[in-house]
């Protein structure tokens, strides 16, 4: 019976984590370039129960021998194994703002591959994003809404001096002072990226390093100026998943309550000394 407590409680904890993940997806439905997170539930290892006893053989000596019979398997709970971002392409939205850029992935050589803009944080470390809603700071650099500067293919921040510039489909940015190529990075396995904030990613511990998308054979992409890529969160699907998760949490809660009532009855009635 005590095992049932842990099984029901593990289900509630997994449902709670799943609900938090889905709530975060909905809260970022209007974040440009946001990639919804998906969760994977996994059961703990099952136990094989056996009945242990003894039986008497029908012989003249009637020896008593051990007897074992298989009862069946027992689940020991469930947990949220991992959360991974879904890098499927979001819809494009025209804004008419020159600093807005949508990065669209074409044919890629890897099933889980993805292309991302490369930016630099305040510590000079590389970060990656699909959010192309950039602005121009007071020094003329293209930055994200968190102040991270957009980089060129040489790893240098891009200074446009204002909003008067053009960006080609290949990511070539042209101003009155010349041209520079945007740093578009490619990863063959987007599942190895770890979210940082709402729209930034960093390679995980065992992830493959990101490379220049232009130098990877078979990687096709296009940059669309005056557009942003919308979040790929499906509101209808996410709301349905939230309702299912909530119902599952309620069912585990009722199971936990039933076990509690059984334990109370066992202690107060069955175990009472008369």
UniProtKB/TrEMBL annotation:
Superkingdom, taxonomy of origin: Bacteria
Domain Flagellar basal-body/hook protein C-terminal, chain residue ranges per copy: 225-267
InterPro entries hit by this protein: Flag_bb_rod_N, Flagellar_basal_body_rod_CS, Flagellar_FlgE/F/G, Flg_bb/hook_C_dom, FlgE/F/G-like, LlgE_F_G-like_D1
Pfam families, alphabetized: Flg_bb_rod (PF00460), Flg_bbr_C (PF06429), LlgE_F_G_D1 (PF22692)
Subcellular location: Bacterial flagellum basal body
Segments forming domain Flagellar basal body rod protein N-terminal: 5-35
Annotated Flagellar hook protein FlgE/F/G-like D1 domain residues: 113-173
Keyword vocabulary terms for this entry: Bacterial flagellum, Cell projection, Cilium, Flagellum
Family to which the UniProt record says this protein belongs: Belongs to the flagella basal body rod proteins family.
Protein name (database record): Flagellar hook-basal body protein
Organism: Halobacillus kuroshimensis
